Amino acid sequence: MEARFIYITCKDKTEALSIGRLLLVENLIACANVMDGMTSVYRWEGKVVEDNETVLIAKSVASKVPELIEKVKSAHSYSIPCVVSLPIKEGNPDYIGWIGDELQIESK
User: Fold this and answer.
1) Cα(38)–Cα(92) distance, rounded to whole angstroms?
2) Domains identified in the chain and CATH numbers
3) Quick check: 4 and 68 in contact, CB under 8 A?
4) 40-95 tens-digit pLDDT
């Protein structure tokens, strides 16, 4: 099992919670954290933009990431939402095992 840390940005807390719940109900993540009040600076359509956003961090496994990305894209208000998956290299083995248990993934 390859545990993953999924970083997603959303327009606001309501959207982040909605997407987090959707991913949880669809059994694509074990849990989600919502952190409101982030300021992002980025280039969009040739302009520098500064916006308030909300971060959604989800814990999952590599085998669920492709479906998770498609689910986020279908539910998200942005035309190109930020969804990035980072491998969890180390951590509390009990917690990482719990991620697999929640997603019904057997450890190797």
Assistant:
1) 27
2) 3-102 (3.30.70.120)
3) no
4) 999 999 999 999 999 999 999 999 999 999 999 999 999 999 999 999 999 999 99
Rounded Cα gap, residues 39 and 30, in angstroms? 27
Please give the pLDDT value at position 39.
97
Concatenating the DSSP letter of every residue in 43-79 gives EETTEEEEEEEEEEEEEEEGGGHHHHHHHHHHH-SSS
Tell me phi and psi for residue 75, to 5 degrees: -100, -10
Distance CA 9, CA 6 (A): 10
Residue type, 48: V
DSSP SS3 for 36 = strand
pLDDT band at 104 (very low <50, low <70, confident <90, very high): confident
This prediction's pTM: 0.93
